[in-house]
Design brief:
Length: about 280
Amino acid sequence: MHPVAKAIWFIESHFGRAIALSEIADMAGMSRHHLSRRFSEMTGQNLNRYLRARRLSEAARQLAGGVDNILTVALDAGYGSHEAFTRAFREEFGLAPETLRARRDLSGLTLQEPIRMSTIEKSKLPAPRIETLYAFTIAGLGGDFEPGKAAGIPALWQRFNAYFGHIPGQVDKTAYGLCTMQPGKPGFRYVAGARVSRRDDLPAEFEIIAVPAQSWAMFQHHGHVNGIPATVDAAFRTWLPTSGRTVGGFPDVLEFYGEDFDPETGLGRVEIWLPLADQMTKS
């Protein structure tokens, strides 16, 4: 995977805490100087400027949502004081954090959206295994995403990972990304979650999703998690038309993250599951 893509993944997975350029460079396997230069060449943006703009943009979204404590938002964005945050926020957007919180409207602000870089080659896709699973329940955090703007999903996982391993009734250490199209809307709903054995005592902000018993086509995803869209695309474009199968059921796509998946690096066992409308014998 390209070092710049690694850097973007690390930023999107960690901007909720203070991170240094040296950390990003270490993850990318380059010196700070060379990473900064390559980042500018490939994205047309300054690395430090991008990190700053991403943090402030996410802070702006929280403020527009009416968050109570501005200092908490400031600290999460990497600023040590309310004053430093306000100064940076004014420089970025031309208004004070309090003003945005009061008006609760992002119109007129130029937010920095995540850069999407997929370096997974769209080559031959290995045949999936077919399994039929009993119904199960997923609980986690959800969000709506517009077409072409799914790069905000790592931020959703960043929030969910703070709960992972401490969720009441969590079945194991695997995780799931559940994607469903929105009827009558151009975007989709995405939920980052884990399997649970019960529905009580879950965090108030969690969604609870019942996944029905059905057959699945399970594709092994190879490489960095940032390349998942390419694997999904290949499954629909390459495998499905010649498989004799029909995709149906709920959800539209399910991402499976094995116990060895490391959210710090974006590497480990990942599978893409497509629900099948036809019945199979249970494995």
